[in-house]
Amino acid sequence: MRQRWYVDKYVPNSHIHWRIKKLLFHKKTKFQDIQIFDLFECGKSLVIDGIPQSCVKEEWIYHEALIHPALFLQIKKKNLEILVLGAGEGATLREILKHKNISRITTIDIDREAVGIFKKFFPEMHQGFFEHPKVELIFESAENFLGNNSKKYDVIYSDISDPGYYNLYSKVKRPETYFYKLIRQNLKKDGVLAMHSNNFSEVSYQDHFRLKRIVKKVFPRVYSYRAYINFFGGYWGFLLASTDKKINTLKISEKSLEKIFKQKNLNRKLKYLSPEMFKAIFTLPPFLKSKK
Q: Which site from 5, 143, 148, 160 is most exposed, i.e. has the minimal number of CB atoms within 10 Å?
């Protein structure tokens, strides 16, 4: 914080300044440094280890983009088993439970203290869904859970605070594919991995494709998409991955999407995604299509 400004230094050569109205909370837990600001333009905002995570004025863009595309790919299934790596502020649970075909959500987070802080400061985001009867919250590292778990999931969401986290908390140096191989072992054969994946603009895209190349070593089907998130300073990338070669996000018609939205009554529940927006976020300009 400098001169009552929070400075986002995530991109080394391009810093973003947000004027601070008030610092609401600051504490270092065992695992991370948590700051909660009231920022002009953004409202209540979460920063972890100096990196912006979410702000209440637009968090729904990120969470709708992360959560719903993977569930659209599992539309014909009933009683979906979901695994969320990174409980965070609980908005992922809120979005998942807008779908009726959810049987169980297992949510993993390494930091019990942090989740308690988020519950207190972000009720408008989690809306009490941490206590939903379909939700099981386990405090453990994602790596340990995946390595010791025997259950298979229809969708796994990786929402740990910073992508490229395959060695985030491990004291043992692992191969770059290790974390994603663990995820694959925990997915059903037609299961889907959804994750966020770095800046993804026409200027800053290298880290997104670096991470995509790692994931493609484990999953035969990997699709990039992006959403513009003002708090992150531009387009933010996401990946959908699966071992099911039949999955192709680019072949889902707008008519099929309209049917899904009508069946699930999502037009009233979502503020960012629509059939048109789904097609838009998966549509990349030729410049980015040519990158690998």
A: 148
